[in-house]
Amino acid sequence: MIYDLVVPEGGALVGHPVRGLYSIPFAGLTDQGVPTFLSEKGDTSIGVYLQSDQVGNLKYEGPIDPTILGGFTNTFSYKNLSLSVHISYQLGNKIRLYPAFRSGYSDLDALPNEFKNRWVLPGDEQITDIPSIVDPYLNFDFNGLGNYPYNIYNYSDVRVVDGSFVRLKTVRLSYSIPQGIVRRTPFNNLTLDLTGNNLFLIYADAGLNGQDPEFFNAGGVAQPLSKQVILSLKIGL
């Protein structure tokens, strides 16, 4: 059925990868900022029946598993200094963005930055694909008709981005304290290390809007990995 194929974890369909990602085609916003879609019946509608087994109108996005994984590590040395750099990358996969859109929000909700570009006034449907924050009266009509366009929007093709990235994973700067100084101590050697982990993404799809392409969380991708900077002193006895 449709839901099994559009979830962030992907689904299996004959002729495609075991964990392929599929989407409901987005068909634009109404003059009230409500998203519409190509439904399982082949028409344009604000409602799509996710339990339907009519999956012919779904858009195949690509695999959710990267087809290429790798990394690059190099060490540069000069006298007592040593600099090591590790860069990791993955290519070839697609990611469904965090399901941030709902028919209602509270003061406790943290809204993503993309809401700044949402539909606000009639005519905005020509310049944005981000729906309005729906008013209670319109939301009541949705529920009465059994339609949930804001939930469907989370599974549409406009909520899919490229999962490829290049990350500066680790940078390590080491300084071996000269033996002339070490001999004045009770130690055999001393090394000062400054290490940075997960410093930044060199490349990632701008559509991620701050979400991390490398690690999945329940229902979407996780927030960026925390940066770490560690200063250490290694002592040899």
Report on this model:
This protein has helices spanning 2-6, 136-145, 149-153, 179-182; strands spanning 20-23, 26-29, 35-38, 44-45, 59-63, 68-78, 81-91, 94-96, 160-162, 165-176, 189-204, 216-217, 220-221, 228-236. It has 237 residues and is mainly β. The chain folds into two domains: 2-63 and 96-160, no CATH class; 68-94 and 163-236, no CATH class. The strands form five sheets. Strands 6-7-10-11-14 form a five-stranded antiparallel beta sheet, with no helix packed on it. It has a three-stranded antiparallel beta sheet with strand order 2-3-4. Strands 1-5 form a two-stranded antiparallel sheet. A hairpin with a 2-residue loop joins strand 12 and strand 13.
Please identify the structural class as seen in this structure: mainly beta
- Give the number of DSSP strands: 14
Number of helical stretches of at least 4 residues: 4
Major beta sheet summary: 5 strands, antiparallel
Low-confidence stretches: none
Concise synopsis of the structure shown:
With 237 residues, this protein is mainly β. The protein has helices spanning 2-6, 136-145, 149-153, 179-182; strands at 20-23, 26-29, 35-38, 44-45, 59-63, 68-78, 81-91, 94-96, 160-162, 165-176, 189-204, 216-217, 220-221, 228-236.
